[in-house]
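Chapter review: from sequence to fold.
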Amino acid sequence: MRFDHVQSLRFFGAFAVLLYHAGVYAEQRLGAVPFGGWLGVQLSWGVQLFFVISGFVLAYSLSRMGPGRFLAHRILRIYPPLWGLALLVWLYRGTADMSGAQFLQAMTLLPLGEIRYPLGVEWSLVYEVFFYGVMTLLACLPGRRTMEVAMLAWLAAIVVMDRLHPGASTAFLPRADQIVFSGFNVPFIFGVLCFSLFRATRRLPLALLLVVFLLALPAATAVAKTEYQLALQGLGFAALVLAAAEASRRRTGIGDALLVRLGDASYGLYLAHVPVLLWLLSALPAARLGSPEAVLLIAVPATFLLGTGYGMLEAAAYRRVKGWLDRGGRVRLASRNTSA
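The token string follows.
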């Protein structure tokens, strides 16, 4: 089935992060807090929404394909758009900003700790790629409930490790010894468990899911500990993703093709928005425009258009390459069957 409503949520997650960074960089570059601080840290939670959606979609993908094909799809989806844009940004800024060795190191997306990245958003992709590896390994294990049991065990292990060593593992730029028990894995885990619940039920209560969403996110703002915030964000966004999946299953609401297309382009928007935004904040004549709000009213729509344009191009390229990969796999399988 098509999870169009879930795909649409990707756009809202990416746009929320764009607004958050617009507020952060406007304050840094222009010396004033725009819009009275309304572009607050809660908008950055769009990343956690991405993580929950990824967990849901990855579990769905693995229910339809083998681990080898799954991993090939994930590598094609993440790395080529990143490499292409990051190379342009690195060449534009020059090697004085980042050496060639540092650039190549960053482009692996391995958990290497406190290293520099050209786009400023790669930390989340480090977690994303790590989760791809975990899901691929688990998919190779036998058993119908292996994935669900492993996710619950992993969640329990994160809780235990946080009790033993509070805050030791949850880092934006984790090392290999930190990433396994980081609280940033929790939204991914919730996403996988969401798909298991969705698949096991014929109908989910939309109203209840929306209530959980509306209660969990405000609760996340009321706690100080990062791991508790991530757990509540994961719970709230898990309820939202389940509601979107259920709406897709029921074909509830008007299918907005534009939102789905924007969701398809959200990865490119996410990759491009920080370098484009920073370039615009430097290029726009802030003194003439008179206020940080006026600058952002130009910079944010321009960043959105340029980032979404890149996202549509890279999404179209991915669909083409993925189609070629899938057709090649079917041809090889048919050839083996014929020879047998």
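Two observations follow directly from the output. The mean pLDDT is 91. The radius of gyration is 21 Å.
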